Every structure is written in C-alpha cells, then in structure tokens.
Amino acid sequence: MNRSPEVQSALDGVRDLLPTFRDRADEGERLRVVPEASIKELEETGFFRLLQPKRYGGFEADPIDFYTAVRDIASADGSTGWVSSVVGVHPWQVALFDDEAQQAVWGDDQNVRLSSSYAPTGKAVLTEGGFKLSGKWSFSSGCDHCSWVLLGGLVFNEEGQVVDFRTFMVPREKYQIVDVWNVVGLRGTGSNDIVVEETFIPEAFTLSMGETGQCKGPGQAVNTSDLYKLPFHSIFTSTIATPIIGMAKGAYAEHVEMQQKRVRAAYLGEKASLDPFAAVRIARSSSEIDAAWALLMNNLREEQELVARGEQIPLELRLRVRRDQVLGTARAIEAIDSLFEASGGRALAEGTYLQRAWRDAHAGRVHAANDPERALQMYGAQQFGHKVDPGMY
Question: Model pTM greater than 0.90?
C-alpha cells in the first residue's frame, strides 16, 4: 500500500505510544477521562488529522489506516482507543459541512477537535437563517478535550411537526459539560452530558441526515476526495466496533502471556501452557478476532472500490457492513469472555489489561451502534425483498 509520508509517520508514532497508553490506563480510570498528555501525544503524531481534509492540514488517509491505528490504541487501553476513534472520525463528518462551518472550525487552528452525541434528544426549531437549538445530550466521549460538539436533533416546524433530523455543530461557548460519568466500563472516556440553552445555529453549521444517508453533503463541493463519498453509517458504526476488536486483540495478547507463566495449583501444578483445552480456547478466540476484523475491513474496501469506479454503493452492501459490524463486536466480546474465563484469579487484579478489557468491551457493547437485532433484522428484511430505508445505513 502506498501511504504518504505523513500518514506513515502518524501510524509509526501511534505504535511507539502504545506502551505509554497502557501504563496510563489506571490514571485514566482514576481521572474518568483520557489523560491530557495522551491526547497531546496523539495530536503530535498527526493521528487526529488522518481523516481531515488536506485543505485544512489533514492527510485524507485511507480509512482502513485510521481504523488500524484505533485498533492498536485500544489494544493498549480501551478508553484511549474509544476516545481516539470517536474524536478522530469527526473531521470526516466536518468535511461534509458547508465550507463556512469548516472554516470556523479549522480556519485559525487546524488542531481543533470535536466531540459528539447523535441521539436526537434535543430539539431544533426552524427559524430565519437557521435553527433554535436546545436540550441535553448524553455520552459525549472525550468532550473535555474538544472545543466543538456535533449534536443530533429533530427539527420541528412552527406547527410542531418533525420535518428533518440534522447534526448541529456547536462551539464550546454555547454549551455546558455536565460531569455525570461514573461507570464501571470505559471509565476513562469522560463521556459526559452536553447541555445547550436555547441558541441560534446558522444553517451552514448543520447537516441533514437525509443527505448523509445519500452519501451527500455540501462540503463535497470543496472536498472532492473519494474518502468523503462513503456512507456515513458505514464509517461511524465501524468507528464504534473497531475499539472493541482492539480490546479483544489486547486481551488475547495478555491472556497468552499470562498462560505461558501460569501454574495451575488446582490441577496439581499443571502448566497452563500444556493444557489442551486452554490451547483450543486460544485458537477459537484468535479466529473470532481475526474474522471480526477481516469482515469489517473487507466490506469497507468493497465500498471504496465502488466509489473509485464512480458507482453507487448498493443497499445490500451497506446493510452487510452493519451486519458484520454488529456481529464483529459480538465476536470480539465472545473472545474476551472466553479468554477471561480461562485466565484464573490473577486476571481479576486491578491493573491487569484483561479485566479492564472485559469491562470496557461490555460497556461499549451497549452503544446503539452495536444493537445486533435491529441491524440483523434490517439485513434479513432486505434479503426477503422488503423495503428498507437507505437513509438509516
């Protein structure tokens, strides 16, 4: 693969930081936020610019390079991987906004970061030149490290009817962060609440989900790379699955290392590395992790190839991306569960990667993007010839 020197440097830099992220995992859990030093170091590698437009100092990298970096970060610390993923993908969406909004974000500082909360729990009302936005949004991961937020909201007309679903780009001075993140998993993500008192958002600082469902956005007029023609839901749901696959990768590595040293007192001093049943678990788990990753990346590659040829991405493929994304998450968690069960009491100790990965992965599993029944039902319905809304995928 031909990568630009900037992209290769970012990937190399991320790899060099993995031991540091692992060492800081306990600190992140204690602070309930990724340490500022880790965010700064990632910024210095260029990681946050991987999906950013070249017009604003970005690299417009292959998204698979981005996901590979996220997977590796999560293999060192799940919370850092999660925040890196969701904050790192936002430049891709900002590139779809009107250039006026892009200029407001990156015009003075190309290192500006954005957090998000897409569930439409707030309310937007049509008004002249834009919208009046208000409400509370939960689970904005990494928000303490960001100076803008992307918020999902239903748009109401004067009669109180829902007429659209949009993403609203809001600057830091127009929202409050409410510290509510006291949880058992992904503790270091700082996924706090965002509160907006009624404020005006110009239309240029909004993006219709109806448009993104058609792989469109006003920003494509200035950001012409094929990168920005991929389906929103393919990019964003992969962003949620990838850290969990990374956690499974890290859990696998620690489990193998622990079992090589472990002597099982309950089995008359048997070396765990000589236990054939332990070997079977390792083989099955490694296959599940590899399968989850391969399907996720192969589907994205197929979408990229269609875009490169100027062809429309069929709904069946977009639904397949979601099918394999939710099942990839499930495969990764099943692998972690299997390894955790076979690791013995020492895996329960605070500070071990394995117990943290077990908690973090199950916390990530409850994200709406990992709802398996809904995604699988939509795929099956489409196979039976039933109508499926392409805007959802």
Answer: yes
pLDDT digits (tens, 9 = 90+) for 358-393: 999 999 999 999 999 989 998 999 999 998 876 666
- In this structure, how many other beta carbons lie within 10 angstroms of the beta carbon of residue 359? 20
Where among 192, 207, 222 does a domain terminate? 207
Strand partners for 165: 154
- Within this chain, do residues 41 and 94 fall inside the same structural domain, yes or no? yes
pLDDT digits (tens, 9 = 90+) for 227-243: 999 999 999 999 999 99
Structural domain including 118 reads 114-207
Here the CATH number for the domain that contains residue 29 is: 1.10.540.10
CB atoms near residue 338 (< 10 Å): 19
Residue 338: half-sphere exposure toward Cβ, Cα within 13 Å: 23
**pLDDT tier at 89, thresholds 50, 70, 90:** very high
**Residue whose tokens read 């707030």:** 122
Q: Where are the beta strands (DSSP E) in 220-335?
A: 263-264, 270-271
**Residue 367 resides in a domain:** yes
My answer on whether 250 and 353 are in the same domain is yes
